[in-house]
Amino acid sequence: MAWFRKDKKPLTAQGRRDVPKDVFDKCPGCGEICYRERLGKNLNICPNCNHHMRISVEAYLSILLDKGTFEELNEDLSASDPLGFSDQKSYPERIASAEAKGKNEAVVTGTGTLDGIDITIAVMDFQFIGGSMGSVVGEKIYRVADTAREAKVPLVIVSASGGARMQEGIYSLMQMAKTSAALSRLHDEAIPFVSILTHPTTGGVTASYAMLGDVNLAEPGALIGFAGPRVIEETIKQELPQGFQSAEFVRDHGMVDRVVDRRELKDTVATILRHQYAGWDT
């Protein structure tokens, strides 16, 4: 019966294949391990739970604008240290560290076309000191709004920010009034402004231009608010409901007009602009 017997060979460890660390990403929403190339094709939206992961300024410009139409404005403006602010890590060092990633400031502004419609656009970069609004961010927002007014074309702003930049003190707080005034001039001349709120949009940015759109849109699950939950609870002495600063919650309570999937963002904005300027021949 030898043919029923099988010679046993000792088990040997198989060579382990090294997987590059940049091949997969873990979804912050559900913990799913996602193939990065597949994520990129899905605009960094988790295929399992639809969580919208953070994307770059360039990605938003690619999503919203027609290919090859973007022209940057005021790219030479960069942050300074007007107060000589000193902290554990000096403000100039923070600026230099942020600039080393490729941007001069926490917002990129310019012109382009969106589905054939001429627009001006500003996209905030959360990677640059938390997308905080200092004097240069305020100046660039003001200038792009003024460009929209002079050219009589719509303005679109994509916000992602922790709020006013504390290292610039009163200079950063002044930008709230400055940017709001620029948008008021657009409103007076009936020039559309669409505000897109992404994760997170908080502090002085929420308290100024981010919430002043003729139409305010938000990405699913984005954190939108002014102060943090702990500060609010201590102020009003009440327990806050779960997820009260999510895009869906603020939409249900009238602060946002619509929550829009990133894959539908361009078509949605184009429809809004055509509705507001129904007489345009685009």
Summarize the structure in words.
The protein has 282 residues and is α/β, with parallel strands linked by helices. The protein folds into two domains: 21-53, no CATH class; 55-276, 2-enoyl-CoA Hydratase, Chain A, domain 1. 32% of the residues lie in helices and 17% in strands. The chain has nine helices and nine strands. It is globular, with a radius of gyration of 23 Å. It starts with 23 loop residues before the first strand and ends in a 6-residue tail after the last helix. The model has no long low-confidence stretch (mean pLDDT 90).
Task: Provide keyphrases for this structure.
single chain; 282 residues; 2-enoyl-CoA Hydratase, Chain A, domain 1; 2 domains; 7-stranded mixed beta sheet; two-stranded antiparallel sheet; 9 helices
The CATH homologous superfamily of the largest domain is termed 2-enoyl-CoA Hydratase, Chain A, domain 1
Q: For the record, give the distance between the C-alpha atoms at the N and C termini, rounded to a whole number.
A: 86 Å
H/E topology pattern = EEHHEHEEHEHEHEHHEH
Q: Rg, please?
A: 23 Å
Multimeric status of the protein: single chain
How many helices? The count is 9
Question: Topology of this structure?
Answer:
Elements: E1 24-26, E2 33-35, H1 36-41, H2 57-64, E3 71-73, H3 91-99, E4 107-114, E5 117-124, H4 135-151, E6 155-161, H5 169-188, E7 193-201, H6 203-206, E8 215-218, H7 229-236, H8 247-252, E9 258-259, H9 265-276
Parallel strand pairs: 5-6, 6-7, 7-8, 8-9
Antiparallel strand pairs: 1-2, 3-4, 4-5
Helix pairs in contact: 4-5
